[in-house]
Amino acid sequence: MSGDGGVAARRSRDAADADGFEDPLMELPGVGSTYAKRLRSAGYDSVDELAGTDPATLADETGATETRTAEWVDHATDERDGA
């Protein structure tokens, strides 16, 4: 039994909106439709654009906690760097 496969499949389903559009921002831990909209409003359209972003700035732009935005930035940086 593979625990990772089930989680990945569920996250992929969760990342799709009602129209079936898969939002890559929603693949970030803790990002649902609300934070995805806030990220887009702040000018971030992809996970890659978040890599290396200052978490404090991102928190100010999205209203999320700096702890949460640091997770997003770490995840985005890991994805960009292939970690």
Strand content: under 5%
Q: How many E-type strands? A: 0
Count of discrete domains? 1
Q: Report the uncertain regions.
A: 1-17
Sheet of most strands:
none
Q: Quick check: average pLDDT?
A: 82
What does this structure look like?
The protein has one domain: DNA polymerase, domain 1 (Orthogonal Bundle), CATH 1.10.150. Helix content is 59%, strand content 0%. It has helices spanning 3-14, 33-41, 47-50, 55-62, 66-81.
Which structural traits does this protein have?
83 residues, mainly alpha, DNA polymerase, domain 1, 5 helices, globular, disordered N terminus, Helix-hairpin-helix domain-containing protein, nucleotide binding, DNA_repair_Rad51/TF_NusA_a-hlx
List the helices and strands and how they pair.
Layout: H1 3-14, H2 33-41, H3 47-50, H4 55-62, H5 66-81
Helix pairs in contact: 4-5
In short:
Helices cover 59% and strands 0% of the residues.
